[in-house]
Amino acid sequence: MALLDGKVALITGAGRGIGEAYARLFAAEGAAVVINDVGRDEAGHHTAAAVAEAIRATGGRAVAHTEDISTVAGGKSLLDAALGAFGRADILVNNAGILRDKSLLKLEEADWDLVMQVNLKSMYCCTRPVFAWMKDNGGGVIVNTSSTSGLVGNFGQTNYGASKAGVMGFSNVLALEGAKAGIRVWTMVPTALSALTAPLMSEAMKQELAAEHVAHAALYMVSSLSGQRTGHALFVSGHSIRELKLVAAEGIPGAGYRPGLTAHDIAAAEDRIFRPEKALTIMDFAK
Fold it and tell me: What residues does each domain of the chain span?
């Protein structure tokens, strides 16, 4: 039996790239798929419609959804599309995202607002109605897409990094709120080939970082293979798969337990406050 037989998956930003890879693999594993994307190809046709048609041509079940999900009405319409076509909503993958890279002093308000609208607000707009349906109908799985840019930083991406760091916080809270309702929540932190990165990659690197490598990790997350796991963040690329989580150093007692603590005392205890290991940077995830 296929891993997702009888399931219905809603995937945002699925007209190309990683989202398309998710949609094709989920459909191959038996899921009915709702493919959201507002993007169009060079001829002006919706990419979501092309992906849905390709899945149907191979015997799968898929419909396209081309509404703007960064509005409350658009997010609700994604759930309505799933219920109208397939009657359920078992899986939600919040994958939609955009870049508007500029260093802070060159970053205008419009570029900040647009990235937040697409990358973070759309997550609220789509998740809230789907979460409510899942809570009333036995649970489900939600995967939210973050980035190493938000977790360790990347030059020129204050807007993108802030939005993706927000995703991590959103997921952490959502996992707590969904636990009693049987709603499992994951954070996906992917690195893969995209239209933006392709010109910078060798042919060998393009193969190593193909979107399909990330899709199999997403399938693990949303299927029964991952059991009851929830609240985890996974970094996934063709190079490695590993959990990411916040850790704390040993530290020292604060002033409430150590009267008279001074800035000089803090400086003298740096070996316990700061971990001696090298902190991760964006380059550590390219290996």
Answer: 8-246, 248-287
Q: ∠ CA(13), CA(210), CA(185), 5° rounding?
A: 50
Tally of residues, the chain: 287
First to last CA, the chain: 36
Buried b (16+ CB within 10 A) or exposed e, 150-178: bbbebebbbbbbbbbbbbbebbbebbeeb
Cα(194)–Cα(17) distance, integer angstroms: 6
The pTM for the full model equals: 0.93
- pLDDT at residue 250 in the model: 86
Give the confidence band of 195 by pLDDT, cuts at 50, 70, 90.
low
Is 185 buried (19+), middle (13-18) or exposed (0-12) by CB count in 10 A?
Answer: buried
Fold of 8-246: Rossmann fold (3.40.50)
Q: In the structure, what pLDDT confidence band is assigned to residue 183 with cuts at 50, 70 and 90?
A: very high
Verify whether residue 160 is a known catalytic residue: yes
Three-class DSSP category at 101: coil
State CA 39 to chain mean position distance. Answer: 18
- Quick check: 95 pLDDT over 70? yes
Catalytic option among 22, 124, 160, 257: 160
Integer Cα distance of 222 and 185 in angstroms: 9
CA distance 114 to 160: 10
Strand order across the beta sheet in which 140-145 lies: 61-65, 32-36, 8-11, 91-94, 140-145, 183-190, 232-236, 241-244
